[in-house]
Amino acid sequence: MKTTKSIFSILLIASLIFLVPSCAINPVTGKKQIMFVSEEQEIAMGAQYHPSVVSTFGIYDSPVIQKFIEEKGTEMGKISHRPNLKYHFTILDSPVVNAFAVPGGYLYVTRGILAQFNSEAELIGVLGHEMGHVTARHSAQQQTNQTIGQAVLLGGMLASKEIYKLADEAMAGMQLLFMSFSRENERESDRLGVEYATKIGYDAHKMADFFQVLEKMSMGSEQAGVPTFFSTHPNPEDRFNSVHRISDEWQAKYPGKNFIVDTNDYLSMIDGIVYGEDPRQGFVENNTFYHPELKFKFAFPSGWKLVNAPTQVQMAAPDQKAGIIFMLSDESTPAAASQKAISDLKLSIIESKDVKVNGNNAVAVISQQASQSQSGQQQVIKLCSYFIQKDGKVYTFHGIASDADFNQFLPSFQSTMKGFATLTEASKLNVKPDRIRIKTVQKTSTLADAFAYFKVPKEQYKELALLNNMELNQQLTRGKLIKVISQ
Fold it and tell me: Which residues form a coiled coil (predicted)?
């Protein structure tokens, strides 16, 4: 009989042969690198990821901003290290300050980061940075590194009981290792962002200025919409100095050229953009979830945490022993929706009946799902599900808990689901989101004085100063454009 170690050696060799690594030439560095992902596969991965990204965040509809980003992004793509790649640009309907790229030329910016920019140059610099991830094939290389690392780690786990015991710690160590790779990727993307922005005529120094804004936001992390990319990006202060230095070097190659900043045109372009959470897509007041666009409401248990995403609403008990998922079904009737859910989730029906929920036809189902744990013990979870038809749509609730806890949470599940009703209150139906409004300073004054003139509540002064990347005592000249927030 072969030993575990020798069996693994055969499997590892076979898996590496199957992956067929190649020594590809990196388009940015010109150096050879081991790469398991071909360019065709990379493009296919991006096309596969894109619908998931869109369904997770939603698309923010702004034809003017979209046209600008597509035109400038396409221009930048043509002078990049991968000029033949087709680039795709999407504005995501998220208040979080973020920008990212996935393999194959798919680049994303959130409306949250667009609201935070104060010039075209800042946007172009960050867009160039994200394009740098694509041109340098960072995602493809990261996947290759993870494949190699996981294979080696798996070999150690199979060959040594001691390493197997430490598998969780070892995997965490691998993640930290690849995070450090990612930080180097970020630095390379900064360099590429400066290069690309400069080549199409923009002042890349403004990308460095934006890093200062990120640093201020991280220091006040209680603020909504805090950037999400600090976990993998280098320290903003380090990037600030580095990007300024690289910008000087690139601009020295174009003596006498005036590089574009364009604050006023950018501010005019984002005038009216939604700021923060959009209550039209759902909001919570006093443990009730309201959706003005779809005209429904339901109460959820006190103390439970609710997360509203474009594709579903998730609610979790304080002890995390139970949860409720709420979503739209693709089916046209409650019966069809319940049958599909039972099939897709491989559930066993305990009870199913037709019911009415505040005048709406519905199907109520109690079911369970059994599985085997790693130790061989059977695990059973139970679900209380309601499939409710309203205005031609079918809404689905799933209340989930372990078999041992299910009866304890069943009343909370049923109360939430039976509370689903048509939203009729005018104050909730007519709620409006906050928006960025661009104002013209009427006379020379400080930023604080300008806020007072435009009747900005004092509790917003600090947030709006950061939004404008200014200090409250900063002197503004007559005609200066600034951002305020109003409906």
Answer: none
Give the mean pLDDT of 469-481: 96
Tell me the angle at which helices 236-251 and 205-219 cross, rounded to the nearest 10 degrees: 170
The structure tokens listed for 70 are 């597509």
Which domains does the chain carry?
A: 19-270 (no CATH), 279-429 (3.40.1000.10), 435-486 (3.10.350)
pLDDT of residue 310: 80
Q: Mind giving me the DSSP string for 329-372?
A: -SSSSHHHHHHHHHHHTT-EEEEEEEEEETTEEEEEEEEEEEEE
Contact yes or no for 73/105 (Cβ under 8 A):
no
For residues 445 and 453, what is the distance between their CA atoms, to the nearest angstrom?
Answer: 10
> pLDDT digits over 235-251, tens only?
555 778 899 999 999 99
Closest CA to 97 of 241, 204, 233, 194: 233
**Contact yes or no for 240/210 (Cβ under 8 A):** no
Q: Of the candidates 107, 78, 105, 104, which has an alpha carbon nearest to the alpha carbon of residue 90?
A: 107
Give the DSSP letter of residue 255: T
The CA dihedral of 407, 413, 415, 417, to the nearest 10 degrees, is -140
Euclidean distance between CA atoms 352 and 405, whole angstroms: 20
pLDDT, residue 1, reads 40
Q: Among residues 129, 303, 319, 107, which one has the least CA distance to residue 232?
A: 129
CB-CB neighbours of 237 under 10 Å: 11
Burial label for 161, CB within 10 Å (0-12, 13-18, 19+), is exposed
Q: What is the DSSP string of 36-79?
A: SS-HHHHHHHHHHHHHHHHHHH-B---HHHHHHHHHHHHHHHHT
**What percent of the chain has pLDDT above 70?**
78
Joined together, the tokens standing for residue 261 give 């900043």
The continuous run of DSSP H or E covering 161 comes out as helix 161-165
Beta strand 296-299 with 305-308: parallel, antiparallel or unpaired? Answer: unpaired
Predicted confidence at residue 220, as pLDDT, reads 59
CA separation for the pair 151, 348 (Å, rounded): 37
Summarize the confidence of residues 410-415 as an average pLDDT.
97
For the full predicted model, state whether its pTM sits above 0.85. no
For 19, residues 6+ apart whose C-beta sits below 8 A from its C-beta are 36, 147
Per DSSP, the chain holds a count of helices (H) and strands (E) of 16, 20
Q: Are strands 348-357 and 475-476 parallel, antiparallel or unpaired?
A: unpaired
